[in-house]
Specification:
Length: 167
Amino acid sequence: MGLTVAVIALSMAPRGALTVDEVRARRIVVLDDQGVMRVEMGQDSHDAGRRSRTAGVWLYDAKGDERGGMATHEDGLVGLAFDAPVGKGEDHLRDRLSLRVDADGAAQVLLTDNLTRGIVGLLSDGAGNGGVETYRWDMGAKLIHRRYITFDLDERQERPLGEPQMQ
């Protein structure tokens, strides 16, 4: 009887902010007022389709589609990415703005278009070298034109689509 009275009293108590010193969880999901997941914190599944498994914070739009996030990867990369909406480009390649630092300290900022083609990049190799690269995609000739500019260098390259980038 006493337990029942305590439960009823607690359920009728005014609701205020809950403050705790620490929360430990494997996954936290924030829902909007429509019940749609808008923020998720945790570790993704083994089959998430990423370059390597990640732990971080992912952002979702009002439809519940992923629109970006910040995460650490098991391979040592840390990244921040913002994605195009679903339907703008290939669904599995929607990153449009990405910032990343690799395990070796190299860093990159990359802007891409809706065809997931790199347009502009800022690069650092982690050893004091880096620069700006821009791309022009000639789909008719099946060529990628790359211009790489550093303080001391202005280099232009072209390669057939599908071939690895020269360094």
